[in-house]
Specification:
This is MBL fold metallo-hydrolase. With 390 residues, the chain is α/β, with parallel strands linked by helices. It is 37% helix and 24% strand. It is built from 13 helices and 23 strands. α6 (181-196) packs across α10 (288-297), α7 packs antiparallel against α8 (230-241) and α9 packs across α13. The protein starts with a strand and ends with a helix. The relative contact order is 0.10. Bound molecules: flavin mononucleotide. Flavin mononucleotide is lined by residues 255-260, 306-310, 338-343, 369.
Length: 390
């Protein structure tokens, strides 16, 4: 339960959730952390907290540095309970502390905890002096809730952006270079694709703000702290925010008797003939949160469903509902599937792709029952034509 001094007198005092495997609908095979930061200055400040069940772990780390009753400021960058869940217990230990948050943060905290704390509402650009350090607040609404803000400490060139730049990684090392670029990039992409993707415009504004600040270290509220790979992750975030993709295709499908899978394989062959790398995901074996990193980087997304009871399979409609909410833009879509008599499944998929504003340049590949050789050759040709459009 040791705290980690990340800058002089700035300590990581969060909690490590080694066992977390499911986080509001998102699989987290590497677990996660909830990062809280303690700043010891004339005024003692805690920035964010941890999920309620890790309170004791966080408290142990705080106590190793200061008596928690001495906390003057409790900064809440984001109201979601993985970060604010231990605020009530901190406020019991430090009843004289002031809760610093955004206007939406105050409303959100009141709705969550029904407490009459001493609030200091801060607007974007406001500063609070701690003595030898300053807290500067910048609102980042909808990255990823209306209350979200970041805290910047200019004297330390340290940005505490809460969920932005987060990754679900539980590790003993607190820094990006202790985990390695491959892992931290993979988890940052997965986090972005499943949480932040709808808010590209707001991320771009936040990146503009960051680019004007001297930043040496970005300490998010999940996972490891960016100190060595800042030059790499900032341009990657910009590309994600701009919905820039690669010359890649993703095929996502489900099947009852295997025919839609045969069509998926024919489309894959055609795309590969056109020189396009393809990732294949069957919804029976891949969780939709695991598929989202491929959605993030793929220009073409092909979705297949057989027809079941006059519609698409529920697994496919669930996936499309999830993707629609995450709003990836500038994609090429294609719908396909097998049917028995009505064939509505693949047609519904096509309508869903178009409703997301994607370009769907080719007709649906909809084949009755088990595809024959000619039909598979035609599907392969469709894949090749799509590949040439990427
Ligand atoms: C329970 C069930 C319901 C089905 N309902 C429809 C339907 O409403 N309309 C239709 O065109 N085909 C329907 N079918 C036929 C399937 O779409 C057809 O068997 C198709 O080839 C299955 O593709 P798959 O091998 O990819 O699962 C149904 C099949 C099953 C097993």
């Amino acid at each position: 339960m040791r705290p980690v001094e990340i800058k002089p007198n700035v300590y990581w005092v969060g909690g490590i959730d080694w066992d977390l495997r499911y986080f509001h609908g998102y699989l987290t095979p590497r677990g996660s952390t909830y990062n809280a930061y303690l700043i010891v200055d004339d005024k003692i400040t805690l920035v964010d907290t941890v999920k309620h069940y890790l309170f004791d772990e966080m408290l142990g780390r705080i106590k190793a540095v200061v008596d928690p009753s001495r906390i003057d400021y409790m900064v809440v960058n984001h109201v979601e309970m993985d970060h604010s869940g231990s605020v009530p217990k901190i406020m019991e230990l430090a009843p004289g502390a002031t809760v610093i948050t955004s206007p939406q943060g105050k409303k959100g905290l009141e709705r969550h905890y029904k407490k009459d704390w001493n609030f200091q509402v801060v607007n974007s650009g406001d500063e609070v002096s701690l003595g030898s350090r300053t807290l500067k607040f910048v609102h980042t609404p909808m990255v990823h809730w209306p209350d979200s803000m970041v805290t910047y400490i200019p004297e330390e060139k340290l940005l505490l952006p809460n969920d932005a730049f987060g990754q679900h990684i539980a590790a003993t090392g607190r820094f990006d270079d202790e985990v390695g670029w491959e892992v931290v990039h993979e988890e940052a992409a997965k986090y972005y694709a499943n949480i932040v993707l709808p808010y590209g415009d707001q991320v771009n504004k936040a990146l503009d703000v960051v680019s004007r600040l001297p930043v040496e270290m970005i300490a998010p509220s999940h996972g490891v702290i960016w100190r060595s790979y800042l030059d790499r992750i900032l341009p990657v975030y910009r590309r994600w925010a701009n919905h820039e993709t690669e010359r890649k295709a993703l095929i996502v499908y489900d099947t009852m008797w295997g025919s839609t899978k045969k069509i998926a394989q024919a489309l894959q062959e055609g795309l590969e003939e056109a020189g396009i790398p393809v990732t294949m995901r069957c919804l029976q074996t891949s969780h939709m949160s695991e598929i989202m990193p491929d959605v993030l980087v793929s220009k073409a997304i092909l979705v297949g469903s057989p027809t079941l009871n006059n519609g698409m399979l529920p697994s496919v409609s669930g996936f499309l509902t999830y993707v629609r909410g995450l709003r990836p833009k500038k994609r090429l879509g294609l719908a396909f599937g097998s049917y028995g008599w009505g064939g509505q499944g693949a047609k519904e998929v096509k309508a869903a792709l178009e409703a997301m504003g994607w370009e769907v340049p080719l007709d649906v590949v909809n084949i009755q029952y088990i595809p024959n050789g000619d039909e598979l050759a035609a599907a392969r040709e469709t894949g090749r034509r799509l590949g040439e459009m990427i």
